[in-house]
User: Fold these one by one.
Assistant:
Number 1:
Amino acid sequence: MSTTERTDEELMSLLSEGRDHALGVLVGRYQQDIFRFCVHYVKDVERARDLVQETFIRVFTARDRFDATRSFRPWILCIARNLCLNELKRKKTVHMESLEEYASAAREDSGELTRTGADNPDQQLMEDERRRAIERALASLSDDAREIVVLRFFERMAAKDIAEIVGSTEGAVRTRLHRILKSLRDKCQPIWDEY
Amino acid sequence: MTYHDDEQMYDAMIDLAAGRLDRAEAKVLERRIDAEPALAQEYAGVAVLVRDLESYGDAMVASLPEIDVVDAVTSRVAAMEPGDMKMVPFATVEKPRPRMGAWAAAAAIAAALIAAVWLGMRESDQPPPQDLARPLTSHDDSPLQEVESPHIARVDTVEAGAPATPGGEPAAPQMPPTAPDADELSMLAKHDITADAIIEQRQAAARNDEEARNVLARWAALSPENARSVLADTDVSTDAIVGAALSLGGADAAPYLQDAVARNPEDPYLNLELAKATGDPTKPELDEENALGWYVYARQMLSSDPPNLSEALKALETAKSYTKAHAYTLEAAQYHEQALIASGMSEDAARLAAAFTSGPSEYNEMVALGNDLLSYAQYFQELGDSDAALIITESVQRFGEQLDVGALFSHERFAGLELQDTALNFLETMYGGERTESLVQNMEAVAAGFNRLVSFIGNFNSFLTQSLPNDLWRFVADIILQQGDLQIFNNLPQTPQE
């Protein structure tokens, strides 16, 4: 079996045995995910790119601490998250700017709206209004609440994995998620009713 | 499929709407949704939300550039020295596991050191330092363990009685100067206490002269008689009245604080102190930059009879969204200065006394607040409500982080680190002794924070033991009373940084 066909956990085992080439495979496999994840926190492409590197360096130095019976992805995301939070703390601004604000700025710069495949103006208007409603609703959330939403819906993570990343329990994450989504629904309902 | 609670089923509905639910489970859930109209309505809302959120997220992600850091990472790894190559694991011991790993040992050393060297500045409001250093959990009897690791904070300890040089090496022990009788000194009337005398005592305190610390604390304290005398004087400033009232505290302070709030209804500090004096609910929304009021409010809700858990959890949820917290040490010190002037101390002496004794009582309050909340977490854990226990404990950890970030004074930062330390201990217990990666990394960060604070205190004391012109002492006091002691080195050129 070639290295690239191995699972993440098998690659970590190889890494802890001194087969450093396994790291390159993991980097190639996860770099975009970690980059996207870091941008959610630091809202800076260059800094996020640096944090991706730092994350993998830390994966390498902590390779003997990885428990191969557990899932790799939440573990590396937890490392990335802590690096991001430390970075924000270091800059004395502990807040989680959202990816959507970065993308909004990028859209404004480029003069483009996100096209969703709608093929008529009315539908486009509806899509735009719904997107703006989501944007406003997300902006009104606390950093911690928005983090949970980002991990659940943008990163498509299960509650169990989110719990591991943020250092909570599955039950507490589900409870929080339920409350947060209720809040989002209340905020978005008027727009849904109209469109 | 049996769902243990509504939240678990709700979570399954999210996955169903996203098309990620296991086929068998999906069929069962769909049948149930079809059979229960209320559930069908709930699901309809969930489905819309899931669709909007996921498509929104996809659109955002599509705007990001592709990166390629494979070569950068592998080059860095190839260039690493052998000593950098491995993070040595914590020393693991088969059952029974040590309850304090190396990170906590470092934190405890630093905490005890900070407490012994730094605290006890205002005698009237301080328990013995060793009590303050002890974490909430009782399992602190494990042997300290030395672990070699570049990733675990090392405490650069300051030798007792010897100030650290800015380079971190302990200096040769210095004998304190011959001191006059400390009891006689501490009995001086306020108007007899000079600025030079305060400087002398502070310098001695920086050399770990405990008697000097006690003298300074007594000089800066307002006795109840002092305070009442100020309050009865019609010729003093309103700030002096507030300062004197705060030193009395409780019901005695209430009428004066009510007057102060009537004059400044939007002042968050005065409102908070009034709430503490009267027992009325706080108004945490008054300070948009400080989470403290929400934690105080949460404690009030939990301590009501019966405990109002849902209000408390809402308050904690709100509190966690704040960037920072602080204990209003700056405001308290400024009012204290005015009260000392009104009590007969010269302006010069009052400024120095207020500056050099600020912090310990706020430290006490913050740690007590955090420990109270943790005791409620323990209470709910014992009742079987582990979710509430976890939310409260995580909130205390967050409070500690916020204090650390928002601190203007070293005592506030110390309180923040202590609370994080204690909350993380609790979390480890809640996880059944398991150390998740997140827990470990947070613990390491706290240990590093303690290390930095020890270094700052060492540097500050070292600075104060030098022969400084009087103007510089006054300048230092001004900085403390305007910006907090953590800003000292940012305002003094060519001095060691924190």
Number 2:
Amino acid sequence: MNHHEATTLLHDVEEVRRRVRLDLEGLSFPLLLFGVLLLGGAITVVVVSGLALAVYWAVAGPAGGAATAVYFYRRARSEGLEPDGLLPMAIGLGIIGGSFLVYALVLRVDATFAAATPFMVVAAGYTVFAVVERELRFAGVAVGLGLTATALGLSALTPMAVSATLSVAYGVIFILYGLTFRRSTRDRR
Amino acid sequence: MSHPSNGLDDTVHQRTRLGILTVLAEARRADFTYLKTTLGLSDGNLSRHLQVLADAGYVEIDKTFDNRKSRTWVSLTRQGRQALSDELDHLRALIDRVR
């Protein structure tokens, strides 16, 4: 085998990898779904109450996680390509469980900071997910969102204002990126 | 000094089989139709190469039934993943020798 043949083979391997990774692209659905749920959360906390927001996420969080799992399962069966589901599932469970746990712990200390902590956990989870999906730009955005949540948690805003602001910010950014990933995956195929 | 091409595994060092292992390395498993479409192969051609890989212990073939339709899923074994990694290392070493 000569240098040229080796180079051509490696190039073919990279091309196959690129195509399979496009087919496995998995960020757009959870971003779109949870983006919409976050906007719903913003409406809930403003129109109803902070307690209603907790109830909302106690239902919407696991429901959204289940819907995401079902989406990936059905997509795998229809496309004939099954991703490794363990890590995304662990990340999802970590986000949902971690958000409630951290909120409950921090609430004893500071209500405003507690309102921001679920958003920090979400940002951390999506950062890990984005790195796994090799979407480093979105990982950077997720880190930025986490820092924003931290800043608002340390501000003089009320807990309700922090929740509403971050819900809208996260919701809009998640939806925009979800749409961007869907379109760029189609374009790159 | 041994030449990098001396370490090539003939089972893996074949364009189609290398392509099959590459697809499987990126996912938990892929079905026959996905492999056929992605790699542009005929049924017979793909079956033959999958058998070679299965005989070498590099892939596992699992036939299931989905809504009464038979479906063949293929996954990479640990030896297959190592064989693919070794092949890619050899190819890169070949390229680096010339640089």
